[in-house]
Design brief:
By secondary structure, this protein is α/β, with parallel strands linked by helices. The chain has one domain (31-327): 3-Layer(aba) Sandwich (Arginase, Chain A). Helix content is 35%, strand content 17%. It has helices spanning 12-24, 51-57, 60-66, 94-113, 128-138, 168-172, 208-216, 224-243, 278-291, 309-326, and strands at residues 31-37, 70-76, 117-122, 142-147, 198-203, 220-223, 250-256, 294-300, 340-344, 347-350. It has an 8-stranded parallel sheet with strand order 2-1-3-8-7-4-5-6, sandwiched between helices. A hairpin with a 2-residue loop joins strand 9 (340-344) and strand 10. Helix 4 (94-113) packs parallel to helix 5, helix 8 (224-243) runs parallel beside helix 9 (278-291) and helix 9 (278-291) runs parallel beside helix 10 (309-326). The longest helix is centred in the first third of the chain and has 20 residues, at 94-113. The radius of gyration is 21 Å and the shape is globular. Residues 1-25 have low confidence and may be disordered.
């Protein structure tokens, strides 16, 4: 902790320099690969495919580079759907889901192979079928933090809507592989994620069968009532302790913008009141960043077609702030990249090596 009541307040420029030095160590340069997934067939609201463009246009890559990161934008995923593919009943747009997620996984694996953190911009939350698949194949042992109002733990047999964006966790979970029928065209995707390696934060809209599954498999889940009781720091620390008790697993952080209260992020397809504040969401990302083991981030469900221009701006800016926090942006200010800082004419302050 940076500030303690037992520590005498620091005064003067030298004191400020000493105090902020420890914070600069958290912003070590990373290699980041941005992948746009403008996919909206996993749900029924048009416009969520515009999420990647809106977040990019808000200045994501420039802001990440300003933090000192090596950023490469791999562009948007494109695919050709498979019209004659017959999937299970009650899984809408199956031909599109299979084709797109295969491409997502392929490109995300390439990003991991280059030693980059994969930053995926959705699109709806079904895109994680591909992104998480890539992470668990690139790293031997993966922990997943799922920040969302919803559990996304349905199968076609339990889903009220048939929308794929409510199914990715169930599809990725090794424990639930026997609950699925054979999925034509999905042989590339083998469920490898143990539910014991998963923790939810922010839940407040969970379907009955999802709740039953969570109870049966003892899934780590922090709803908003838990956040209120434990505080956001306690919640994140417990979630990380559960999924990564030995502090060695690669972490995949999947963030659905509807985890935020709808006043904070109104332009999304399934808003639920009573969610996280932006400040709480930023804190989650900061704590995960501090582990030094972040391997992949998803930011999904920003829909520029929903709400007023002000609503869209509010939502996109929230998404941007959440993402920057995941990569080391400090609310107390980041250290300059230069080794020397000009103070007055002819005088500089040198940064310690």
């Amino acid at each position: 902790m940076w500030v303690s009541s037992t520590v005498r307040p620091l005064t003067g420029l030298a004191g400020l320099w000493t105090a902020t030095r420890s914070l600069s160590s958290r912003t070590a340069s990373k290699k980041i690969g941005i992948l746009g997934v403008p996919f909206e067939k996993g749900q029924r609201n048009q416009g969520v495919s515009g999420g990647p463009r809106a977040i990019r246009e808000a200045g994501l890559a420039h802001a990440l580079r300003a933090l000192g990161h090596d950023v490469e934008d791999f562009g948007d995923v494109s695919y050709d759907h498979i019209p004659d593919l017959v999937g299970p009943e009650n899984m809408d747009k199956y031909q599109h889901v299979v084709a797109c997620m295969h491409q997502v996984s392929t490109l995300a694996r390439r990003i991991h192979a280059e030693g980059r953190v994969c930053l995926a911009l959705g699109g709806d939350h079904s895109v994680t079928i591909g992104t998480v698949d890539a992470t668990v194949n690139a790293h031997e042992d993966v922990a997943v933090i799922w920040v969302d109002a919803h559990a996304d733990l349905n199968t076609p047999a339990t889903s009220p809507s048939g929308s794929a964006h409510g199914m990715p966790v169930a599809l990725l979970a090794k424990d639930l592989s026997d609950y699925w029928p054979y999925l034509p065209g999905m042989d590339w995707q083998v469920p490898k994620l143990p539910l014991s390696n998963l923790a939810y934060i922010g839940l407040r809209s969970v379907d009955e069968f999802e709740r039953l599954t969570m109870e049966k498999f003892n899934v780590c889940a922090f709803g908003m009532q838990d956040v209120e009781s434990l505080g956001i720091t306690g919640t994140v620390e417990l979630a990380l302790r559960h999924v990564d008790p030995h502090k060695r697993r690669a972490i995949h952080l999947s963030f659905d913008i509807d985890a935020l209260d709808s006043l904070e992020a109104p332009s999304t397809g399934c808003p639920v009141r009573g969610g996280l504040t932006l400040r709480e969401a930023i804190h989650i990302m900061e704590k995960v960043h501090e582990t030094g083991r972040l391997a992949a981030v998803d930011l999904v469900e920003v829909n520029p077609n929903l709400g007023s221009a002000r609503d869209v701006q509010t939502t996109v800016q929230a998404a941007l702030q959440v993402l920057l926090a995941a990569f080391g942006h400090s609310r107390l200010g980041n250290m300059p990249r230069s080794a020397e800082i000009p103070l007055t004419k002819g005088a500089t302050l040198k940064r310690d090596a």
